[in-house]
Specification:
By secondary structure, this protein is α/β, with parallel strands linked by helices. It has 17 helices and eleven strands. It is elongated.
Length: 413
């Protein structure tokens, strides 16, 4: 391990830390940089994997060529092939012109594929061909194109598990993993945690002209014991929060506990209450109960709406039957599969038939609305204006009769 080269690299890229894992990762990056071998950087989210591809490119023969860092997880699946490999004019909606794609533009340079484990399987096949032959075809095109690109990839996904589950191609994994680089999580970097805290605290003090925050000895112990699931990114966020929000510039153990979980062994972002050393699941049950209660309320609302709609449909059928379209007056044809709901009693049916017989003698120019209006008028007249009795005779609800009376303007007469 070339200690002097590693130290120069840290100074050039403002890398803070002296842990063995960090030094080993930088040493491998410097050794592989002069070659064209593919590199796969593995590490948890927030450990700083993005600095390694930059170190590799800047120390390689390609350093004067273009460098592109691409987050594969942020590009929609429907457009990622076009983004990476380009497309022909008119190959899809919105393709108003040709596109070179990253592999065309970055020829002779370096491409960093972050979150490579999120690539769709079809795109993985295209990427494998580029790695093996340097050839690719634009989306919508037929011409084979050549490119000379150095690929450095990174992932926080368990690649072996992804391969077993069929989410990642095994042959592509071995092509990318020619040289593996493992970035250590923050919890394994020891005193680097305190060095990074001092750096972030100083940056905040200089940027916003604030007194710099410092840690007490007890607070330092907690910082070193906590497992930092969010790694360097989480440490930076917490330091920035304390720099702005804490009135006391000396961060004690009590102050620090307000910003990170109280359980020093936790790898979660929040402390989980426990009973007798085992998780009680009380909070989870409360959340589930709340969700189920809201869901039950939504279902009940939906039932009420459906029942109301069904009642309106039944009333409409009954009223239509009353004016001559229902099964009460004419039997269904043998092959008619309509469902008819009969709601009127026999006596009411007889009255309606007599009323319809009277209406047959009316002029043939009457439309359905006129006929419905006449039926209601006759029913009201026969029942002495009693709307409830008229509704029963017509086989409809009071509410429907009142609405029809209002629609036909009979309440004004």
């Amino acid at each position: 391990m070339n200690t002097s080269e590693i130290q120069k690299t840290k100074e050039r890229y403002a890398i803070v830390g002296n842990s063995d894992g960090l030094n080993r990762a930088l040493d491998v990056a410097l050794q592989v940089a002069p070659t064209d071998l593919s590199v796969l950087i593995v590490g948890e989210s927030g450990v700083g994997k993005e600095i390694i591809p930059r170190v590799i490119h800047d120390n390689s023969p390609r350093r004067r060529e273009k460098y592109f860092a691409i987050n594969c997880g942020s590009i929609p699946e429907g457009t990622i092939d076009s983004e990476l490999f380009g497309h022909e004019k008119g190959s899809f909606t919105g393709a108003i012109g040709e596109s070179e794609g990253y592999f065309g533009v970055a020829d002779k340079g370096t491409i960093f594929l972050d979150e490579v484990g999120e690539l769709p399987l079809a795109t993985q096949a295209r990427l494998l061909r580029v790695l093996e032959t340097g050839e690719y075809i634009r989306v919508g095109g037929t011409q084979i194109r050549k490119t000379d690109v150095r690929i450095v990839a990174a992932t926080n996904v368990n690649m072996q598990k992804a391969i077993t589950e069929g989410r990642f191609r095994e042959d592509l994994y071995y092509r990318l993993n020619t040289i593996p680089i493992q970035m250590p999580p923050l919890r394994e970097r020891g005193n680097d945690i305190l060095l990074l805290f001092r750096l972030f605290a100083m940056q905040m003090a200089e940027k916003y002209r604030l007194p710099k925050i410092v840690l007490t000895e007890e607070a330092k112990e907690l910082m070193l014991k906590y497992k930092w699931p969010g790694n360097v990114r989480q440490l930076k966020n917490i330091t920035e929060q304390m720099s702005v929000l804490s009135e006391n510039r000396e961060i004690s153990l009590d102050i620090l506990r307000k910003y990170i979980p109280q359980d020093p062994e936790s790898t979660q972002l929040a402390t989980i209450a426990s009973t007798g050393g085992q998780h009680s699941y009380e909070n989870e049950r409360e959340i589930l109960y709340k969700i189920l209660y809201e869901l039950r309320g939504n279902v009940n609302d939906l039932k009420r709406e459906m029942n109301g709609l069904r009642q309106q449909m039944d009333e409409a059928r009954a009223l239509s039957g009353a004016v001559g379209f229902g099964s009460q007056l004419a039997p269904l044809a043998e092959n008619d599969d309509r469902t008819t709901v009969t709601t009127m009693p026999i006596a009411a049916n007889r009255n309606v038939e007599e009323a319809v017989a009277e209406e047959i003698n009316e002029p043939e120019t009457l439309n359905l609305s006129d006929l419905g209006k006449k039926m209601i008028e006759k029913a009201l007249e026969r029942n002495g204006g009693n709307r409830k009795k008229a509704a029963r005779e017509l086989g409809i609800s009071d509410r429907t009769l009142y609405r029809r009376i209002k629609d036909f303007g009979l309440d004004k007469s």
